[in-house]
Design a protein that fits this description.
Elements (H helix, E strand, L loop, with lengths): L1 H49 L3 H16 L5 H12 L4 E7 L10 H13 L4 E7 L5 H6 L4 H4 L5 E4 L12 H18 L4 E4 L10 H15 L3 E2 L26 H15 L4
Parallel strand pairs: 1-2, 1-3, 3-4, 4-5
Helix pairs in contact: 4-9
InterPro entries: SGNH_hydro_sf (IPR036514)
Protein name: SGNH/GDSL hydrolase family protein
Length: 272
């Protein structure tokens, strides 16, 4: 009996030792596997990065740079630019107006375009400037001259609507009707068009012209267009100082163009 009891005890001890040993070695093996996998993970990550398509990586980097530049834009324009970035297309920004919106070097459209290109680049923005000189808004509409520019389908239209050139020819109500015809044509060409209106340059001793500018601002707000009142950057039109900003033809000179451009730049390029 004693012998059998000892054999049973020996069997139990042997089984316990074997089971304990197996559990210990299983734990050691699992630990080694985990460590090995953790060491391989970074290698696999690096390998994945190395194997990434260079063109795709460059495109992703360029897209992130473009998105970062959106922070400089006014909030109401950021979505418009974001849509173009997702389409991998530049946004078409058109500047249109009378002789006050000159195509000459050093004029405010030229100064604005150069600064916009410096900030946003031609992969994000394409700028077109069109000066329709020596013509009233009625002549433009009757001859349907805006159609040439409607076909270009701008995404943003910054228009100076012949307010000054029309002043001695056409009543303000007619001028606003002409403006409506032009803008409706542009919207037919691109229903998603963003329209920004700003007045022609101020002049000395404006009188009725001041009222016309107020009517233009009222028109813009009633039609939910963005209105940029750059007159705030000029001297008061009743002060002789404003003559220092104008040519003999009451158009912007170097100083006037710089004042106009500076106001617009504060809108299109925000400080962040």
């Amino acid at each position: 009996m004693v012998k059998n009891f000892l054999l049973i005890c020996l069997f139990i001890i042997t089984f316990a030792v074997l089971a304990g040993g197996k559990m210990y070695w299983d734990g050691q093996i699992n630990s080694v596997l985990v460590e090995t996998l953790s060491m391989k993970a970074p290698e696999q990550s690096v390998k994945s990065e190395v194997n990434e398509d260079p063109e795709k990586a460059a495109a992703n980097k360029e897209k992130m740079l473009k998105l970062d530049r959106l922070n400089y834009l006014p909030p109401e324009l950021q979505q418009k630019f974001r849509e173009k970035i997702n389409q991998d297309k530049p946004l078409h920004f058109m500047i249109l107006g009378s002789s006050s919106t000159s195509e000459q070097k050093g004029a405010w459209p030229d100064l604005l375009e150069k600064r916009l290109m410096d900030v946003y680049g031609n992969t994000l923005l394409n700028v077109t400037v069109k000066e329709m000189a020596n013509m009233t808004s009625t002549e433009i509409v009757e001859e349907n001259l805006q159609e040439e520019w409607v076909k270009k389908k701008p995404d943003i239209l910054l228009i100076e609507p012949f307010l000054l050139y029309d002043i001695e020819e056409i009543a303000i109500k007619k001028r606003l009707k002409n403006l409506t015809v032009m803008l409706e044509d542009f919207k037919k060409g691109n229903p998603d068009l963003t329209i920004i209106i700003h007045p022609s340059n101020p002049i000395y001793g404006a009188h009725y012209y001041l009222e016309d500018e107020k009517e233009l601002e009222k028109y813009a707000k009633e039609n939910k267009y963005i209105y940029l009142d750059h007159w705030k950057s000029w001297p008061d039109s009743n002060e002789k100082e404003i003559k220092d900003y104008l040519t003999n033809e009451s158009l912007p000179n170097k100083k006037g163009n710089e004042a106009w451009a500076q106001f617009l730049l504060h809108y299109f390029v925000r400080e962040i």
